[in-house]
Amino acid sequence: MKVLISSPCSASVIIQYGIKSWPIWECEPSKFQWNYPDKEICLIIEGQAKINTQNGDIYVIKAGDLVEFPAGLNCEWEVTKTIKKHYRLGS
């Protein structure tokens, strides 16, 4: 299972998907396990995090990245700089 990152996310994609109307999630620097029962697409507005997947893949996500987490992904989040993101669950 691969995490897909488009960087930087273009303004046209933000408008096309209506990303600015999506809910916002924020998290202070921390480390935690996370499971994605559904696909999630998110736009990182601020901050940075390192994602370690169960397959041993490591991804660094940061402000400006459009990130797609596949359904069924188990991973560890390490938020290194307070993160803020718009997100949408499901297809």
UniProtKB/TrEMBL annotation:
Signal peptide: none annotated. It comes from the Bacteria. InterPro entries: RmlC-like_jellyroll, RmlC_Cupin_sf, UGlyAH_Cupin_dom. Gene3D superfamilies: Jelly Rolls. Residues 18-87 form the (S)-ureidoglycine aminohydrolase cupin domain. This is (S)-ureidoglycine aminohydrolase cupin domain-containing protein. It comes from Prochlorococcus marinus (strain MIT 9301).
